[in-house]
Design a protein that fits this description.
The complex is a heterodimer of chains A (about 170) and B (about 190). Chain A is of the alpha+beta class. Chain A contains 5 helices and 5 strands; from the N terminus they run H-H-E-H-E-E-E-E-H-H. The longest helix of chain A is centred in the N-terminal third of the chain and has 33 residues, at about 1-35. Chain B is α+β, with helices and mostly antiparallel strands. Chain B contains 7 helices and 8 strands. In chain B, the strands form 2 sheets. Chain B has a 6-stranded antiparallel sheet. Chain B is globular and about 50 Å long. The interface of A and B includes residues 95, 100, 115 and 146 of A. Strand 2 of chain A pairs antiparallel with strand 1 (about 40-45) of chain B.
Chain lengths: ~170, ~190
Amino acid sequence: MRARLLSVLLVASAAAWGADREFDQLVKGIETHYGTSRMHIPLMGAANLVVKVAHAAGTSGFKLAVFQNLDSSAEYGDQADLDRLMDRLGTGSLHPLIRVRSRRDGESTYIFTGEAGKSTRMLIATFQRREAMVVEVTVNMDTLMETIAHPETAGKAFGVTDPSWDQ
Amino acid sequence: MSIARMVLAAGILTAAAFPSGAQEIKLPPGLEKLADKAEQSVDVTMNKSMLQMAARFLSDRDGDEAKTKKLIAGLDSVIVRSFEFARDGEYSAADVDAVRAQIQAPAWSRIVGVRSKSSGENADVYFKNGANGQLGGVVVISAEPRRLTIVNIIGTLDPTQLGDLGGQFGIPRLDVGGLRMERKDSK
């Protein structure tokens, strides 16, 4: 029994480590490519709460990284360059699922998914005119299906904004 | 029953027995570049492992879920590419013809082809012939003046389940009678 418990714990921590790795890899890749750093987000726990409340039915395990003033990088805004970057970074155990580009809103959204036990892990990277956001969230199948049915709103659906980030 | 539905039904019945195999439609470079002109472009790709993952979460007991589970069990991939333009004429017939050129007999049969001069809306549905009366794949091309949607489904499908695919996985619902392709609201 003890051995079984240990193996369950090992599998769980390996999955968690894998999840962290892909999120961190994506965040680090964006930082390196655009010569920027993710924002320090005060009250991140509150943001977590907002997401849990807003998507109580199907969302958990929320991680967020926000980048600002990306337009100061010469490469930012080059769509082909961004596609290449995301193709390179979106690997590992996650599969590219959705790619939405909206010239109207000046926004590009990339969604990767992978299995997380009885749920699905979604890694969402949204690039706007000046800012970008990477969200990792665990969703249930209903939420995943809803995202696939309305991919154009996926970036906004998981978007979290807080006035304090601008300070 | 509308004429288009009758054509669809006839097409299903006459689907011949050719060996089934994966045949993913490659979007020509010209079409890929449409994303630069489009106001909005959407690219949904579900590969076999993702479809299997989705199937695992669906219940065998719930009527709709069981139906969807059975439906996706034989699928290898679902790809949806959609472009929305601000003005008419942002893409050319040649762009779409380059896709159609890949979907040729004998492997593929064009089951529905609707052209509307008044609205400029065109819809084509192609079936890949599979074994034992099954379909080996489906391609839907919906070309409207300001919107172009290409759906490529690869895998084994039961023709009777085809209608259930509309509205699933970002696949537009095909209402051939009204010549509209639209996403079904899931909620």
